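Lab notebook, bench 4. The sequencing result for the construct came back, and we need a structural model before the next group meeting so we can plan mutations. Quick request posted to the team channel:

Model the 3D structure of this chain.
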Amino acid sequence: MRAVVLTGVNRLELRDVPSPAPNAHEVRVRVTAVGLCGTDLHIVAGHANYNRDANGRVIPFAEAPQVLGHEIAGVVEDLGHDVTDLRAGDRVIIDQGRNCVSERRSPLCEFCLTGDSHQCELYREHGITGLPGGFADYVTVPAVNAVRINSPVDIAEAALVEPLACVVHSTDLLAQTDARYTLASGDGQAVRTAIVCGAGPSGLLFVQYLRRVLRFDGLLLVLEPNAKRRALAERFGAETVDPTAVDAADVVRERTHGRGAELVIEASGSGPALADLPRLIRKQATVLLYGHGHDGVDASVLNLLQFMEPRLVSPAGASGGFEPDGRPTVYVSALNLIEAGRIEVAPLITHRYRSLDAVPDAFAGDHRSPEYVKGVVLP
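Done. Here's the predicted structure in token form:
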């Protein structure tokens, strides 16, 4: 099969590679859509490499080339002989993570026992930790990692189930956190003001989830320099601030009458955004650290934040339990939200790439365009 292979920093090559036949409990899926994620961009640019050996040391791309792409939707083509609840031709979305449940390990590790699949003791991810991902003709995964699509939803939109699942998991963690301020309505210590730093795909999904699923009706501010993304955030129910035009902290203090925000979701990965957190929040607020990167700052920016005693919540991936058939509950929930139209993802897709041949160009700079929000490859 063909695959786009990362052989070095900013070096992507279209190659012929093996397509593993499915084992007894696996399916081979023909990839029909795969989203371009900020994590992919970080890896290609050499800012991150999550493929590590047993001692936690990075395995260089030259030693172990990678096939990226973890926001995957496709069509089942081949099934292992133990798979009875899927059939060839089924459209599916993929949970890219392999854990104790999907690998049929017994006993389950302590993390899989509690549904925290992204913290599995032996966790591996297609497209992130070295296992081959979706920038390829096919991907072979455990059958329980494939969730059937039960509607005519556009396949490009289905690929955004994975980032939405991460948002669902993140907000679930907020609900589980013992914090002074909560999103629960009617609570005397309810969040009055929430801020989302960054209106990229994840930030825009957070806005929709807060408004449409959690029914948050307080002040929702989005800090975003890009005009197109600000417009989308406003469409989804937020007020917006351009932090390059005004002092965002001054605006927050004015809009909250000096109180500050009880909840900040840092979804930008911007170093200056991390440094500005102490000026945005109320004491003992909750800060959800979702974005990655934060170049250009050192750990000293956290000093003032520590003095304010916030609850820091740092989610990873889309953990959140297993269905009776072993499929990931959070992915099932995210797919249902998109299929029901409660969360809109079509407006986020600004770039569609019609073949694997276009993937290197997609990484070459499209994401820097002011019109870019989200790209999806349709191989």
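The mean pLDDT is 95.
Will bring this to the meeting.
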